[in-house]
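Entry 14. Structure prediction run on the chain below.
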Amino acid sequence: MAILNIRIIGDPVLRTVADPVTDFGPELAKLVADMTETMEDVDGAGLAAPQIGVSKRVFTYRIDGVEGHIINPVLENSDDHQADHIEGCLSIPGLAFPVRRFRATRATGVDLNGNAVSIEGEGLLARCFQHETDHLDGILFTDRLEGEDRREALRSIRNANYDALTERTTTKRAKTVGSSFGGASFGGAGFGGAGFGGGANT
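Output returned:
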């Protein structure tokens, strides 16, 4: 297993719709293992494959003791929404804003062995599934913002100081990249201190 580089906003892979996984074997197993280790190294709540430069429909998650991975996920969302909650993203370090998400989500797909997976979640777990699946569709949490929050996020990303922040974040993460042992925990701000490839940072 290895800790991998996390791509930062501006990288085209984050804006590309990921391809379905069709090959199940050792390479996929290694990808899932590396993503899990990378997510844990930065104390993330979730991580999508495009965030480590692999344009495949895979994400890992770890919320309140519930952890795993889903390949080729399909979401069924409730009709109603949960209270807006602050999200961050490992690919957009330093920014966190309240995001509107569906209250409950059922994620179906397969695991790395091709076995069917179906997981239902509410609250943070549902939020994580929606955030990570957005990554697989080339959508970032800032795309979900509206009004002044959206304007503030875009202003921050355009700011020269934000370039310096992303450089510092990348440099700090690089200290454990390629290593199979842990390092400091950092990443985008988020709820509960974690991050999803977005979210609490994910």
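The first strand starts at residue 44 and ends at 48.
Filed with the rest of this week's runs.
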